[in-house]
Amino acid sequence: MVIMKNDKNGKREPHKEMYEAILTLETLDECIRFFDDLCSVTELCAIEQRYQVARMLSEGNIYSTILEQTGASSATISRVNRSLRYGADGYDVVFKRLDAKKGE
Q: How many whole angstroms separate alpha carbon 53 and alpha carbon 50?
């Protein structure tokens, strides 16, 4: 059994091998299959919903529109908004790269 570790600041220390495994995926189909195996349907729905909320917030949509279109709770929208504003900029990296790819 693996025990979750915290760093000296009390933050969760990630198990990097899983993230390295994700980076080995080469196609959209491989990625979908991996996450289907890794996550339950409920977990995937929650992750996909948070991503959709983040995308909509980054595009300037307001809470009521996001709530209506995604079905996310106001708590989820607020949590994602905090991540966009004060998080590790992971969403920004992905959105910029996807937007650049679409522009090619």
A: 5
Instruction: Give the separation between CA 19 and CA 12, rounded to whole angstroms.
Output: 14
Task: Tell the burial category of 66 from Cβ atoms under 10 Å away from its Cβ (0-12, 13-18, 19+).
Answer: buried
Taking the model in full, what pTM does it have?
0.83
SS3 85: helix
Contact present, 70 and 56 (Cβ < 8 Å) = yes
pLDDT in tens, 29-40: 999 999 999 999
User: Which residues fall within 8 angstroms of residue 104, CB to CB, at 6 or more apart?
Assistant: none
> How many C-beta atoms lie closer than 10 Å to residue 53's C-beta?
27
Helix or strand or coil: residue 34? helix
Please write the tens of the pLDDT for every residue from 9-55: 667 778 899 999 999 999 999 999 999 999 999 999 999 999 999 99
Torsion sign across C-alpha atoms 56, 22, 45, 36:
positive
